[in-house]
Amino acid sequence: MKPFTQALLATLLLAAGPSYATPITTAGDPALAGSTLVNFTGITGGPYSSLTIGALTITGGFTIDSSGNCVYSGNSAPCLINAGGALTFTFSNPMTAFGLQIGATNFSQNLTAYNAFNGVIETVVVPNQVSTMPFPYSAFYGINAGSASIQRFTLQANSGDYWSIDNIRFTAGATSVPEPASLALVGVALLGLGWSRRKQA
Predict the structure, then answer these.
(1) 7: helix, coil or strand?
(2) Bond prior to 134 in cis (omega within 30° of 0)
(3) Would the pLDDT of 41 be above 70?
(4) What is 20-176's CATH number?
């Protein structure tokens, strides 16, 4: 790779800047202001392998439950019940933040956000709630991607664990605008690339 090309790539990487992803622990987090809410109201109960609700598609083995199991897990009926394995939540358009109520986990779980290129943005560990929290063993977990964009997230459960989720929230947030200094760096790099090619011609 030529030195100028290396310099151009370095400049573009610097201009992009870090995303500063952070965990979300409450539905009232500012990153979720104006968020879309999915609480499974109106969804027919029963087993599913895939379910699309608006901009969100959930895949994996799960059940939509309207019984007392939701209450036991600290969620209101109806809710989503999972019995081990992994769930994938995919957005039709990239989002900047999401969160959901998770209840009655007996083992720690990994909540991981990915960008459109399958790169990991952030992972939040959901603890063993039954051992560490008072009844009904429920809390809100999520990820604020900062300047990054979330295409999907996964909840990886230990096999055989039984838990529920409800009140999924997500937001596209504001479209980030590059800072003037970053734009200037990119502009200088592109001008330099054009000048270099003219000299070689």
Answers:
(1) helix
(2) no
(3) yes
(4) 2.60.120
Q: Is 34 exposed, middle or buried (0-12, 13-18, 19+ CB in 10 A)?
A: exposed
| Distant-in-sequence, close-in-space partners of 145: CB < 8 Å, separation ≥ 6 | 19, 21, 95, 96, 97, 113, 121, 122
The per-residue pLDDT for range 134-147, each reduced to its tens digit, is 888 899 999 999 99
Place of tokens 């109806």: 78
> Between the CA of residue 40 and those of 51, 77, 82, 116, 121, what are the distances in Å?
10, 8, 14, 26, 27
**Which amino acid is it at 78?**
P
- Rounded Cα distance, 195 and 189, in Å: 10
- The closest of 64, 88, 77, 60 to 136, measured between CA atoms, is 77
115: β partners? none
pLDDT tens-digit profile of 160-197?
Answer: 677 899 999 999 965 444 434 334 444 444 455 455 55
Helix 180-200 and helix 3-16, axial crossing angle in degrees, nearest 10: 160
DSSP type of residue 106: S
72-123 per-position pLDDT tens digit: 888 889 999 987 788 999 999 999 999 999 998 888 889 999 999 999 999 9
Q: Per-domain residue ranges for the chain?
A: 20-176
CB-based contacts of 168, cutoff 8 Å, min separation 6: 37, 38, 39, 56, 89, 98, 99, 100
Among 156, 139, 168, 152, smallest CA distance to 79 is for 168
